[in-house]
Automatic annotation (TrEMBL), chain A:
Pfam families with a match to the protein in the record: tRNA-synt_2e (PF02091)
Assigned protein family: Belongs to the class-II aminoacyl-tRNA synthetase family.
Catalytic activity, reaction form: tRNA(Gly) + glycine + ATP = glycyl-tRNA(Gly) + AMP + diphosphate
Stored InterPro entries: aa-tRNA-synth_II/BPL/LPL (IPR045864), Gly-tRNA-synth_heterodimer (IPR006194), Gly-tRNA_ligase_asu (IPR002310)
Species this chain originates from: Oceanicella actignis
GO CC terms of this entry: cytosol
UniProt-recorded name of the protein: Glycine--tRNA ligase alpha subunit
Keywords: Aminoacyl-tRNA synthetase, ATP-binding, Cytoplasm, Ligase, Nucleotide-binding, Protein biosynthesis
Annotated compartments: Cytoplasm
Record's signal peptide: none
Length: 323, 686
């Protein structure tokens, strides 16, 4: 990428993502890759949910493909998708200049703050399935919500100390705005002058149509229910294991494998919801079941971190070779 | 006499909290200062999205010294008692004085507090205020423990007078107070030092920050009105939205733009709701077409292109939003045309109204039955009222109301007309929720009235049946509002109906007496503003069976008018004399003198005359009440005044002859009984 490109307006969806990656890397974040599971939002990535817990500092940025089966519109709707990308930044403790850092990221993707109206409008965030909440804003650019900005106060029922600052960008919407595109499927995915120029539709239209049909009408609800219960059971079974691993003799609390099962359960619930087989009263009960898993995983993650810290403190100097 | 200026500068404060926070800052600081002996002449507080500011004038340089004496235990009291006193006073044993007292030698503490300089007191007070500020929701940030509504970045705190300004020494969790403020986030971010409040406000204005929210509102309204006027349009005013929008900007820049033509046919209430809810836009109406044709948005920044890009962006977002609204509107219309509003309402069978009162569909069935019952009492056709009740809440199952709950009723009216229902029925969909507040108009069309009453009475009877009544400040189902709604609909339409049978019909399990008493309380609250005395209401309500609110109120008004005249006041005095004697004698004798007195035992003269007057009054009161002529009933009661006074003048009640005495006590009781036809005067106070 040339210097001129960098300062000018981006030309494609992927260029916006690349610029965000570069920007946050330059601000010291570890640029992670998406989590390899189906999730409803970037927050579910363990790099956010779990790393917001405990005392250790953290700074990470990543793209997370996210799935919301009920939002599927067969690729026809200009703004709605059942599969989309979020860009997620989590920094703990939240730095004092996080708002300025965030505004810098908008400039990095070509939003000139002298020409646009950027505002922070109250919007407190809560995830009933994760037992998490925080205070913050939705960020408006010319009346459009382009990001969610949250100071985490609680995750999995644990008070966050220190507090993490979380930024979530809805990439398609933001990119459509920056690129001046009216229908998501028309958005250039790679450079429009590339030998093989691809639009967002070239990449995703078929997938949207296929998943919309499957999500709404075909997915085997009995299987989904069974999988939900399997995931729930496995999550509990993992966490019920004694902390001490009989094979290695070490303390190994398996918070992350358990959390994978929690993520699974959450997505299965979303699929069941899209299939319309969950009544309003049952809904609350399912959410409470996922929340119970999330809470146990959070407990385990905190316990694991404490065990690790105790181990480090106890060992002091590295153990002698052969010990 | 220095002045004080404080600014608490933070990340964006939610708009809805700003006005209250400014008030709280002023109240807590002034209370805290006065409590510590620092007075002030004038206080003013302001809020913008990023700052709370407080200006106080005329503070003293220092507080007055205080000398306080406190009496302690005796000098020979147990050590424990003396230690306690030392702890409480913060003195040592040597510092206490011993003085002779009636009780012997007693310890006294003489505490002298020197005056404190105002800087120290301000610092102490401000720290306390910041640490205990009553935000509705507050948070921590970073690795700190301080709580504020959003991260607090800086504190400006200066005392200033003709000689200059000085920073009040203060540091809270690493934030040290200074004399520096910042301007607009984008247009003037550079910090600048300030010397006084006037200096501060002027520099902020130059740095593109309007400190006073009222001034921001004024500018927005003036700009919006003139933008609209220039195009022959008119702004749809919305004070709540104005308040919010003024809390989202430090430098209001008002912009107006057109709504894309494909959305102009959406119902105006849909346009307004969508623009207000999602975008915080004002609506602009064309008085010729009576349509909403433009929007006004308030940006926070001046741009080189005079807002062209901002406006273009906003138009685009609005189009996406209105596409959604149009999608809902068209889906709803299709659904209504295909299966009618009854079909739409069917979905409500799956929506729980309350776990112990069944689904919305069951509630609608009850309202329908009740509306049919009420219809003839309010001049509506029963079938039409039932039809309206059946569909009045159908729009709760529409996509539009799911998205915009505040459009309930309004959408129902549109969909009902679309489905071919009569205009009266459609109107009931919109009007049956009314009145929602004390200043909201009540429905007057008979069908709307029938459904509105049925809706509210079902709710009240239902919650009474499951014993979920309002308690103290808790009224989660807005039952007080519902009862007041019934009262206002009845009174303002001058309706004659008895509530008790309707309660029983709505839910036979409810305690109708208790619910009626609740209505009496609401009625008192409602009529208090008109100067109607609560005891007068009690005196009428106590007669029992008073469940015709309009009639009850007429009786109350007549009684109050009567009591305000000499006749009324004197009759009341005679009544009380009779009642007091009777009560005393009944208590003494342990019997009730409730038999009819015998005229043949009466002496000629005033006693006989009273017998005759009571007979006349009884008949006349009964006749007047039968004709609902309360003024005449009161006049008939007033006619008793002379005979009662004459009786007490001439006759000794406690006659030596036991039979005569008993007869006279029964005669007194008859005064009570006869007047009680009109009102229970024993409940009148004063």
């Amino acid at each position: 990428m040339t210097q001129a490109d960098k300062s000018g307006a981006p030309r494609s969806f992927q260029e916006i993502i690349l610029r965000l990656q570069n920007y946050w890397a330059s601000k010291g974040c570890a640029v992670l890759q998406p989590y390899d599971m189906e999730v409803g939002a970037g927050t579910f990535h363990p790099a956010t949910t779990l790393r917001a817990l405990g005392a250790r500092p953290w700074a990470a940025a990543y793209v997370q493909p996210s799935r919301r089966p009920t939002d599927g519109r067969y690729g026809d709707n200009p703004n709605r998708l059942q599969h989309y990308y979020q860009y997620q930044v989590l920094i703990k403790p939240s730095p004092p200049d996080l708002q300025d850092l965030y505004l810098g990221s908008l400039e990095a993707i070509g939003i000139d703050l002298a020409h646009h109206d950027v505002r922070f409008v109250e919007d407190d965030w809560e995830s009933p399935t994760l037992g998490a909440w925080g205070l913050g804003w939705e960020v408006w650019c010319d009346g459009m919500e382009v990001s969610q900005f949250t100071y985490f106060q609680q995750v999995g029922g644990h008070d966050c100390r220190p507090v993490s600052g979380e930024l979530t960008y809805g990439l398609e919407r933001l990119a459509m705005y920056v690129l001046g595109v009216d229908h998501v499927m028309d958005m250039p995915f790679n450079d429009p002058d590339a030998p093989i120029a691809l639009s967002y539709g070239d990449v995703f239209r078929r997938a949207e149509r296929e998943y919309s049909r499957w999500n709404f009408d075909v997915a085997d609800t009995e299987m989904l229910l069974r999988h939900f219960e399997d995931a729930e059971r496995e999550c509990a079974a993992i966490l019920d294991q004694p902390a001490r691993d009989p094979k290695t003799g070490r303390t190994i609390i398996m918070a992350q494998p358990a959390y994978d099962q929690c993520i699974k359960a959450s997505h299965l619930f979303n699929l069941l919801d899209a299939r319309g087989v969950i009544s309003p009263t049952e809904r609350q009960a399912y959410i409470a079941r996922v929340r119970a898993l999330a809470k146990r995983c959070a407990d385990a993650f905190v316990a694991a971190e404490e065990a690790e810290a105790a181990e480090e403190a106890g060992q002091g100097a590295p153990a002698p070779v052969g010990a | 006499m220095p002045d004080l200026l404080i600014e608490l500068f933070s990340e964006e404060i939610p708009a809805r909290m700003q006005a209250r926070a400014a008030q709280d800052l002023r109240r807590l600081m002034t209370d805290g200062l006065v409590e510590r002996g620092v007075t002030y002449a004038h206080a003013a507080a302001f809020a913008t999205p990023r700052r709370l500011a407080l200006a106080l004038t005329g503070l003293p340089e220092a507080t007055r010294p205080v000398r306080e004496e406190r009496r302690g235990p005796r000098a020979d009291a147990p050590q424990k008692a003396i230690e306690g006193f030392l702890r409480a006073t913060g003195l040592t044993r040597e510092q206490l004085e011993e003085r002779e007292d009636k009780k012997g030698r007693v310890l006294f503490a003489v505490i002298e507090r020197p005056g404190r300089n105002v800087d120290e007191v301000v610092a102490e007070t401000l720290e306390e205020v910041i640490r205990s500020f009553p935000w509705p929701k507050s948070m921590r940030w970073g690795a700190g423990a301080l709580r504020w509504v959003r991260p607090l970045h800086s504190i400006l705190c200066i005392l200033h007078d003709d000689q200059g300004a000085r920073v009040v020494p203060l540091e809270i969790d690493g934030i040290r107070a200074g004399d520096v403020a910042r301007g607009h986030r984008f247009m003037a971010p550079e910090p600048f030092a300030v010397r006084s409040f006037e200096d501060y406000a002027a520099r902020l204005e130059a740095a593109k920050v309007v400190l006073d929210p009222e001034e921001r509102k004024r500018r927005i309204m003036a700009d919006a009105a003139s933008l609209a006027f220039a195009q022959g349009l008119e702004l749809v005013e919305d004070p709540g939205l104005l308040e919010e929008v003024a809390g989202l900007v430090e430098w209001p820049v008002t912009l107006m733009g057109p709504i894309a033509p494909e959305f102009l046919d959406l119902p105006p209430e849909v346009l307004r709701a969508s623009m207000k809810e999602h975008q915080k836009f004002f609506s602009v109406r064309n008085p010729v077409t009576d349509r909403i044709e433009q929007f006004v948005t308030v940006a926070n920044v001046e741009t080189p292109d005079h807002g062209a890009l901002i406006l273009a962006g906003n138009r685009k977002v609005l189009s996406a939003r209105l596409s959604d609204a149009k999608f809902f509107w068209e889906n709803d219309l299709r659904a209504v045309r295909e299966k009618g509003l009854e079909g739409m309402a069917r979905k409500l069978a799956n929506v729980t109204f309350h776990s112990r009162l069944g689904s919305q569909a069951e509630r609608i069935a009850r309202i329908e039955a009740l509306a049919r019952e009420i219809a003839p009492l309010v001049g509506a056709k029963p079938d039409m009222a039932a039809e309206a009740a059946r569909i009045a809440k159908a729009d709760l199952a529409s996509e539009m109301v799911y998205e915009f709950p505040e459009l309930q009723g309004a959408m129902g009216r549109r969909y009902a007309l679309e489905a071919g229902h009569a205009p009266e029925v459609a109107a009931a969909c919109a009007e049956h929720y009314a009145p929602l507040g004390p200043s909201d108009a009540v429905p007057t069309a008979p069908v709307s009235v029938a459904v509105a009453l049925a809706d509210k009475i079902d709710m009240l009877a239902g919650f009474w049946a499951i014993d979920e009544k309002p308690t103290g400040s808790k009224d989660p189902f807005a039952l007080r509002r519902a009862a007041l709604g019934v009262i206002r609909i009845v009174l303002e339409n001058d309706l004659r109906l008895r509530l008790r049978p309707l309660f029983a019909k709505a839910d036979p399990r409810c305690d109708a007496d208790d619910l009626m008493a609740f209505f009496a309380e609401r009625l008192k609250a409602h009529l208090r503003a008109e100067g109607v005395r609560h005891d007068v209401i009690d005196a009428c309500f106590a007669l029992g069976g008073q469940d015709d609110v309009a009639l009850l109120v007429r009786r109350v008004r007549a009684l109050q008018a009567f009591l305000e005249q000499d006749d009324g006041a004197n009759l009341l005095a005679g009544y009380r004399r009779a009642a007091n004697i009777l009560a005393a004698e009944e208590k003494k004798d342990g019997v009730e003198y409730s038999l009819d007195p015998m005229p043949e035992l009466a002496e000629p003269g005033p006693e006989r005359a009273l017998f005759e007057a009571l007979d006349r009054a009884e008949a006349e009161i009964a006749e007047a009440l039968g004709a609902e002529d309360f003024a005449r009933a009161m006049r008939a009661m007033a006619a008793l005044r002379g005979p009662i006074d004459a009786f007490f003048e001439a006759v000794v009640v406690n006659a030596p002859n036991a039979a005569v005495r008993r007869n006279r006590l029964c005669l007194l009781n008859r005064i009570r009984a006869v007047t009680r036809q009109a009102a229970d005067l024993s409940l009148i106070e004063g």
